[in-house]
């Protein structure tokens, strides 16, 4: 809920100039009820000058009157002055100085593990410029030899939900274009949570690719063995009958 500017000063003014309950004032300015009571007793916010919310266009007199007449009425802020003139920021997000040296590592990680992400998406995720992304993508960055890929979520440069949303958007765009994706690319285009839940698909080694329907041709021989009798050892060697040797010996004796 939006709060008024100068909360304690506004509470001081409301305590001094209205009969609104401490609970109503505390809910309006975002302070504890006992703190507002301390302001009324003079123990808290000593020397703080009251800030008129009506004169500063944050509260109407009608709201004050309604709150004075009904202890359950909640004061409603007229205009959130802190957001006045604030527009949606465009371009890359602001990155704190303490984390700017981590941006090349995060860009390298996104380029390596999510090549489907556009430069504009990477720029919004980690707060960088397109020339820097292009230099790391083409390995022409001045410090490319010392850059190690690190997850931008681990570095605190973006949230996991933001990264997943960008990856899913890239997946939808690639699917709409009708591009053919490999298994590795398809796993990269889903969120981390979905990827971990996917079952591993069996892969056929390249050395035997194309032989998945190959079967040994032993069916005909098995059928032939059933129809034809199995030959014994004598048939292979064509051994003569035993009676021939005895007749030869009788002839020699005679």
From TrEMBL:
Species this protein is from: Parasedimentitalea huanghaiensis
Residue segments, region Disordered: 195-254
UniProt-recorded name of the protein: DUF1013 domain-containing protein
InterPro entries, alphabetized: TrcR (IPR010421)
One Pfam family of this chain: TrcR
Extent of Acidic residues compositional bias: 244-254
Superkingdom, taxonomy of origin: Bacteria
């Amino acid at each position: 809920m939006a709060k008024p500017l100068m909360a304690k000063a506004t509470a001081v003014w409301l305590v001094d100039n209205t009969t609104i309950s401490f609970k109503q004032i505390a809910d309006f300015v975002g302070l504890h009820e006992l703190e507002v009571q301390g302001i009324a007793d003079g123990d808290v916010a000593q020397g703080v000058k009251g800030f008129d919310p009506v004169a500063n266009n944050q509260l109407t007199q009608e709201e004050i009157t309604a709150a004075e007449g009904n202890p359950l009425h909640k004061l409603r802020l007229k205009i959130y002055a802190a957001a006045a003139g604030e527009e949606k920021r465009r371009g890359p997000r602001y990155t704190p100085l303490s984390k700017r040296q981590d941006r090349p590592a995060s860009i390298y990680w996104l380029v390596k593990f999510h090549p489907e992400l556009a430069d504009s998406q990477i720029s919004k995720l980690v707060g960088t410029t397109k020339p820097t992304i292009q230099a790391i993508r083409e390995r022409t960055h001045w410090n490319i030899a010392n850059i190690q890929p690190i997850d931008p979520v681990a570095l605190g440069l973006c949230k996991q939900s933001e990264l997943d949303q960008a990856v899913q958007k890239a997946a939808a765009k690639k699917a709409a274009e009708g591009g053919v994706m490999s298994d590795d690319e398809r796993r990269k285009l889903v969120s981390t949570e979905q990827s971990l839940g996917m079952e591993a698909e069996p892969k056929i080694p390249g050395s035997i690719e194309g032989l998945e329907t190959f079967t040994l041709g032993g069916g005909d021989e098995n059928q032939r063995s059933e129809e034809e009798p199995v030959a014994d050892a004598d048939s292979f060697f064509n051994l003569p009958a035993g009676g021939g040797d005895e007749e030869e010996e009788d002839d020699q004796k005679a």
